[in-house]
Amino acid sequence: MKRSLIAMTLAAALSACGADDPNAQLDKIDKLLAENRSLTSTQVSQVTESVANGKRLLAEGNRKEASKQLAEAIKVLEKASDAY
After folding, report:
1. What are the pLDDT digits (tens) for 73-83?
2. Global pTM?
3. Rounded distance, CA 4 to CA 26, Å?
């Protein structure tokens, strides 16, 4: 019972922080792109593909899979930001 309560609390907290919110992820992607960090052509392709897939999945109502795709784009952009 305690584990279930802790897991539900953690899931709610992460959700409130936008961890699984595709719209918040899109905002974060926009902010990262606005920083004008140097991206390799491979990184540009990865981000473009992940964002396109995420938007498509979001339009289809598949928020969980959309979030996964958008998280991949964020990961690439953050890695590029760290290397800058």
Report:
1. 999 999 986 76
2. 0.73
3. 30
Distance CA 42, CA 51 (A): 14
What's the token pair of residue 71? 């998280």
pLDDT at 20: 81
Tokens 């964020």 -> residue: 74
**Would you say 51 and 29 are in contact if contact means Cβ atoms under 8 Å apart?**
yes
Q: Tell me the three state secondary structure of residue 59.
A: helix
Q: Which of 44, 39, 47 is nearest to 74 (CA)?
A: 47
- Average of per-residue pLDDT across 13-40: 81
Residue 32 has pLDDT above 50, yes or no: yes
How many other β-carbons are positioned within 10 Å of the β-carbon of residue 6?
10
3 by Cβ neighbours in 10 Å (0-12 / 13-18 / 19+) ranks as exposed
